[in-house]
Amino acid sequence: MKFTAAQIAGILEGEVVGDPGAEVDRLSKIEEGSAGSITFLANPKYTSFIYSTRATITIVSKTFNPDDKISTTLIKVDDPYKAFSKLLEYYNQVKLNKTGIEQPVHISKTAKYGENLYLGAFSYLGEQVQLGNNVKIFPNTYIGDNVRIGNDVMIFPGAKIYSETIIGNNCIIHGGVVIGADGFGFSPNPEGEYSKVPQIGNVIIEDNVDIGAGTTIDRATLGSTIIRKGVKLDNQIQIAHNVEIGEHTAIAAQTGIAGSSKIGKNCLIGGQVGIAGHIHIGNRVKVQAQTGIGRNIKDDEVIQGSPAIGYNEYNKSYVHFKNLPKIEDRLTKLEKKTE
Q1: Rounded distance between C-alpha atoms, residue 249 and residue 63, angstroms
Q2: What are the catalytic residues?
Q3: Cα dist. 290→121, 274, 309, 313, 321 in Å?
Q4: Has residue 321 got a pLDDT over 80?
């Protein structure tokens, strides 16, 4: 789909310098620009590329004035980076704005859906499924019985949404996500064998939640596993049964959260963090990467290490950790002198 410089300037509230009819159909880096692409110049380090770029259109600051001849049409805006980000968002919306039902798919007779549904090929809608308006479900997606999904939700290929799951509005669920699989519940007997404990709860995901590719969220044993509004989950995260994650908390990849732990609002959790079961983490907590948490954490703490200690305390201790070989060598020499 092609856009002219004039159309783009209208979207960005910018000013065209050059050919308002110049057309583009793709985005590019300024150093890799080619005919038919649009790029931007925000970092002064890349200014030299504007004189050699082959991009048809370049977004620049209103204060930019070229020192040499340029071939690219300019769109001048207040903030080139924000303007290009807005354009990326607009481009993504246009690219993903699919509607209609492809074939083959399976839609149960009791399933209901709103306006502007897109249902990709080889997808499955179970009994009593309810979908809101503007839901986009890409191919090879499974939606189990009694699942409820709100408005403006996008589910990418290969996601599996098990029965009874509830998903709010404006959520994005990436490929390979599994929501509502059984929690890890087993009961041992005296012989060392395990019997499965039925997991009969569900998963509730509130509004404006993003879930990265390959992340898994287990259903509760009883009650609900809850992901509150505005939560952002990276790829390949494991969230166990009956966990609750507070509003606007962000969690990086490969973090694992064991059953029944509660995480507060506005927390920032780094990659490869391990959180033990039945732990309570307060609000606005910052957890450094590869931290292991086995205790309750109060509001506003910043922690690191395994087992976790205060971030500043960890950094002070680390000075001694890395000097242990030297310290050991000094002790050995002192012992020899005193023999």
Answers
A1: 38
A2: 241
A3: 40, 7, 12, 16, 17
A4: no
